[in-house]
Structure formats: structure tokens, C-alpha cells
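Chain X:
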Amino acid sequence: LCDRMKGNLRFIKQKYYEQGNKANRMLAIRLRKHQSSNIVQKLKSDQTIISKPNEIADRFANCYKTLCKNTQTCKDDNLFLNYLSKITFNTLPEISAKQLHQPIQEQEISAAISSLKSNKSPGPDGFINEFYKIVLKAYHHALQTETVAPSWNYITIVVIHKEDKDPTKCQSYKPISLLNKDLRILTTIIAKRVNEIITEIINPDKTGFITGRHYGDNVWGLLKMMSSYKTKPEQAMVLSLDAQKANDQVSWQYLEHTLQKFKLGKKFIRWIQILYSNPMAAVKVNGTMSNTFPLERGCRQRCSLSPLLFIISIELLAQLIMDKENIQGFTINREQHKHKHKTQPLLKELIGNYGHFSGYKVNIDKTLAIDICRNISQTFKDQSGLPCTYTDSIRLKLLGEQTRSNTSEY
């Protein structure tokens, strides 16, 4: 019986190898199974269940319209400037800023097109990457005249179900923005330029999405801190903040002022303004398109430029903490790692003020307080001022990868 099963498995592997990529019944069955996993059968809407495709699509559209609506109460530029003037910036040298402003070269377009992956979902215009591989001219007119094609401002959003989440809730689906490929090529070129200069304005302890840096350095620093403090009598913790809907909450007004303070140059900032000029979106669910709605804040998902813009925007929060003399951190080998429990109310106020201008909100469900010394009292927890989950284990999800370790091991 075992020999027969082994033989059948070999025949199945051979059949998949010979016929798996051909337009036949086997491929149709596999595609049907894949498509069925992405179908949204029903949704909850105001305590009622909806199942019609157009109603489901519009329900998602209303959800994301609310998410991307600009709810910022502070719109006075003078208040922004006054707030930012109190923060120390690593400004970009003029010679580096000029690299961002250079006219786009044919070699850059060719390199960006070559870097695009084939067989990816197209944007609203329906063109795939292979079409653009024969085109090496596009953008000088748009950037010089500061006008773009209307299709650049139109985005299709598709949704992917999050594992172990209620499939009847919109919040259980991750929105993915499908951009037109001509826009993808341009943002890829701009992102490559930003990558070349971003280390000059972002402190070395920021590692995510920055070429040449690795988040393992941050984990190692945390483990070093835990090892140093495990025998000390004082109570101490490390607070891991998680941003709620990080990319979707960024205020464009705040981002513009931040880019100016970093001295990235008027021309570069104007390019960003053009790329985020009156964008519209529609949600595609089960093959049905919703009504279009405006996007008023946030960085586009799956855009190569978005994580870099978010890093620049969040750098101010880290710099605010470092600049505050009243916030004293852990000292290891004469190197200070902020913050300490006596200053937690101040930290809460600082994050609140930062969120008032930037749109940043703390995701309470994913915010962790790690017990460094394994002796945190209830009084200490009450003093933190921030609702979070207390643990003696590192369970941090960094850039999609899970890091786990118990403090008792160090």
C-alpha cells in the first residue's frame, strides 16, 4: 500500500509539472479555488447582513472614505511652523538636495521599468508592466508643467482577508492600492533618489525600509538593555508603540511642512504635492466596482515611495523624545536609551501633541509594555498613563516578521 501511494504521489508531481501552467482543466480548478478564497460572501452593515455585490463594494468604499477623510482640526500653517520650530532637525545639505531635483534621465526610467515585476495586477488603466517596457519617455512634461494625467489620481483598491479575522467586517480586510504603472515607474524613480539621501536626515536607530540598515540591530539593542537591567532593583519597562493605520493617517499638510523643515527642496516637495493632488479611489470587490470617493490623507499602500515618506514623518516623534531633557532613559555603557517611568505622563502628552498635528494615533491593541526587570508593580503600571498590554516576553512583529523571546532568558 505504501509503495502504491508513493507511486501515485510521483505521478501527481509529474502531472503538475507537465500540465500545471497550461490552459486546461487542472489550471481552471486551481484558479477557481484561488478566486473563491478572495470572494467576500457577506458583510455586516449597521447590524444587518448585506450580500449584494454592489452593496458590499459600497460598504467597503464608505469604510475607506471615512478612514481617509481629513479629520485634522489644526489647519493653521503658523501653528504647524511654531510646533516644528521647537524640534531639532538633521537638515539635508544643499548638494544632496540637488540630487532630488535633477531632471529624470532615460537611464532611471529604464532601470525603474526593469525593476517592475511581471504578472502583477494592473491599475485602473488596465495596462500591465510588459506594455511599459517598450516606453522610455513620459515624465519631463508632467514635472516641468506641474500637471499630470487624470489617470494618475485614480486608484483601485482591492481587499485581502486577514487571517483569523471575522470575514463579515470591513476592518478584517487589508486594503491594497493598485496604481497605474506609469505612476508606479515615476514613484520608483523618486523613491530611489530619496533612498540615496535618507540616511543623512534619519537617525541611525531607524532601520525599517532604509537601505544598508537592518531591524536586527534594534532587537540586539533591546536584548542588551534587558541583560543589563535584569539584576537592578528599579522598575523599568520598554514601550513598543504601534501606529494605528500608520500609512492611512498621515496628514498631507503636516508632511509638507516636515519636508520643508528637512530642507528637501521646493522642487521635490512640489513633486510630492503633484502626486497627491486630489486623488480619487474606488473599491473592487468580487469583480464589482464601488462609487468613487476622495482621499484626503495618508500614503498609498504598495507604493515604493510611501514607506520613505512615513519614515520621514515619524522621525519627528523620535526627535521630540530625544530633545526632551525631562525624559531620561536607560543608561548602558554611558549610552542613554529613552525613556524612564517617571516621565511617562510627559511622554503621553508628547505623543498626543504630535498626533494632533500629524494624525498619528496609537494602536492600543498592539502596543506592548515589556517588563525589563520582571518586577513591575500595579502602581508602576498605573503611572504609565498609556493603555497597553504588559508582558515579560518580546513578541514584536517587526516588518512582518515575528520576534519572540522571554526576558527570563537574559
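Chain Y:
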Amino acid sequence: MRSAPDLIVESVQASLCGLSDQTLLLGCSGGVDSMVLARTMLELGQSFEVAHVDYGLRPESAADAELVARWCGDHDVPVHVLRAGTAPKTGSLQAWARNVRYHFFAETVAWRELAAVLVAHHADDQAETVALAQERGGGVDGLSGMSPVAYLPVASVTGRRYRLLRPLLETARSTIESAAEAWNVPYRSDKSNEDMRFRRAVVRRDMTALRREVLLRTARSSQKQAEEWLDELPVQLVGTLTSNAPDYRRIPLEALQELSDDHRAWYLLRLAAALHPAAPRRRSWVDAVNNLVQSPPGSRLSVGVIEGVRDRESIFVYSKPFRRRVGEETQERTVDLPLARGERLSEHFGVGTLRISRLSGRRMDESVHSTADTDHAGMQPIWLDPASVVGRVRVRRWAAGDRFTPLGAQGSTKIKALLTGSAVPPSLKPYVPVLVDDAGIMCVPGYRAAERFRARDATQEMLCVEWEPGSAYFQRAPDCTHP
């Protein structure tokens, strides 16, 4: 019979296959589970660093941090300790601690340029998680419990979401405790795990060996169902679950409507989890999306931290932090126009990228002055005579009441009417920029120039203005070439 240490070493080694030459970050509380995992990393010769959070919620928490730091010092393992701020007086204490912990992990793994994050969740934790999901009436993903390979629920400051590995997820707590005894691993006990005010502690107290095995079988069965649904998912929807965009997605309506009711509910709940860690993973979210599918373009939804808008052929969903961030990024600011021929300005603006190039060109042909849409969203390069610029140039989001005289028009028109006439998707319309100078609106990038910037016989140079929305809006950007 193999010993507990041997079983754990084999399990962790299999979980870290392909990462032996990488440095990992281990989240370590100082409890028996994470301290045994740290010892296992030493046994494997795996390069790793340790992250510990002192929440300051218990008088003993400083001793937990001291134990972790001392062990790391004794074994030459780099350690990073965060002393969390004051816990909120309302709301879930556990949710607050989890949010603090994962944000710290995300920033540390990015700062140290590490490969992934390890945590020491084990089979007993898995059984408790599934039991709690059953109580809440969880769907397939809820009953699947935790995944051995996932992603951190929060992104780093760079926007990247790092892998989260749980190499002990198939290992029983009793095996971990036996390994700790065999290895003489020091660890701390957290009495709050026995606090019956927390539902998980009650579930842990009432857990029997038989129920534990039933719950673990439920998790494996649900994981298999989830894998089958993922395999059967239309490729357009698979992309929404794997997108690098942290807090917004576009759902193609045709692909969504191909799914059965249960398959669609599973997909939408998984999508919510990918959008934001606090996203609602309940039936009200699924019902809201289903209602939006049956609503006319321009209709909206708002459920918890998630909002959405229906376009003609898709639904654009995003988190409220996304909307706030875009609002901050689209405040009016000065634009330094390119001064030399061939020079190009490129800067992020809201949900896209604004590019301005200065090109030589005396006369523009009729295609340059065309008012016809050049692709499915009316996006086209805009050409401006730089000699017509008056004063300082700025970029901002268009606003209600904005008017200008478009190229080829006899009178002024509202920007709102121009965008509606150009069939701009309702999800994109609020974020379209305008270039302005001291004389007024110069152009709506991607859509129309002002008449006063028409090329004339004496024109020697032109400014080419492009606006490229992010990939969640369009896969193809306008092509700015020399006229």
C-alpha cells in the first residue's frame, strides 16, 4: 500500500505535467492543506513562490503569516504577504476575503511573471461545494464543483487572466493530514472553519463518508455533461467563453437559438461567470437573456453587475465596470495630429482604436467622397484636408444635440440621425467618437467627414482617420490605403 506522501506527490506531479520548467505561485494560508502542497513542491523540485493574505480577522492571523514566512525562509522560497484592509461591515465576509485573495494572486503572478497559480482545494472541499450548490438549486456547472484547471476569476492590471490549478482536488483531507504527519509539516488550524454561522461549516460538520462519495460522483457526472455540452457548442459561442476580453462579449443570436433550453441555460450561466466574478449565476439572468432574444433591436437588460443590449443579429453583454471604464476612457482629450507625411497616430479610445495618418495627395477621386456604406456597419476611412483645421483638435464621444454638415450634404444633421441612418448597432452607437476643432465637428470617424474638409484643387496632403472597434464588435477593420 502506497504511503500518503507518495500518493500526493504522484497526484501533484500529474497535475503539473508540462510546467516542470516554470515558476508557479502557491496560495498558502498556513493551514495543513496548503502547507502539505508547499512541501510536495519541494519534493518535486518544482520552482515556486508563495502568496499569503493576512485578513486580520482573527487574533491568530499574525501567527499564521509568521509561520508561512518562516517556513519559506527556511526553504529559500520567495514569499509575498498582503495585510488586507478593514473588512466591510455588511455583505458576505467570505466573498470579501475571496475577492481580496484572488486580486492579490492576480497582481503577484503578473508582477513576478509567473506561469500559474496553485491552491490547495481538496476532495472534501469539492464535496462541500457541490452540497452547497445543491441547496441553491445549482445547474450543471454548479453541481460540477471546482475544476482542477480553471482561470483566476479576476484579471491582472494587464488584463490577463492567469491559470488556476487545483492539484489536490482528487485527494481526501485525511490523506493530506496523514502526509503532514509523515513529513512533520508545520501548520496552523483556523478555528473559523468550525464557526457554525457559516453554512459551509455546517455542511462540513454534517458530512458523512457516504454522502461525500455521492457528492463527488455528482461532480464527476456533471463535469462530463458540461464537457459534452462544450463539445456540442457552436463555434461562434465557444469563442465567447474563451475570449481574452475580461468583461464584455457578443452573443450571435442565430447560434444561441440553436441550443436546447437546458444547453442554453448552461451556456449563459458559464458566460456570466466568464464576464465577472460577481455576475448573477441564477435563473433570472437566463430569463433576462431569453426575453431579450424576443425583443426588438435596441432593447436592454440589467441583472446584477451585468448589462446588455440587443442588436439586429446579436446581443452585446458587459459588466458595469466595463461601462464605467469606457466612460472614463472617452472623456474629451487633445489629439496631436501627425505633422510629417507618412506619420501615423494610434491611440486607444473607449471600445476601439483611433488612427490618424498624414498622406500626400493633391486630388481625391470620387470614391473618397462617397457617402455610401463600405461594409456591413458603414465603417470607412475618413479623409480630411488638414488645411481646414481650426485651432486645437480634440476627440470625445458624440453627445445628444451634436450637429454638423456632412460631406456632400446641403445642410446640417444630427450625429444621432447619421448613426441611425448608417445602421450602427445599438451596442456600438453610444461609444462612437467625434473629432472636433475650434470651429466644430470635423468628422465622425468611420462614418462621415464634415463638408468643410472636402479636398480642393490646391490640396497637397490629406489626413486619413480610421476608427477600429474591438473584436467584440467587428472582426474586420477598415483599410486605409493611399488614394
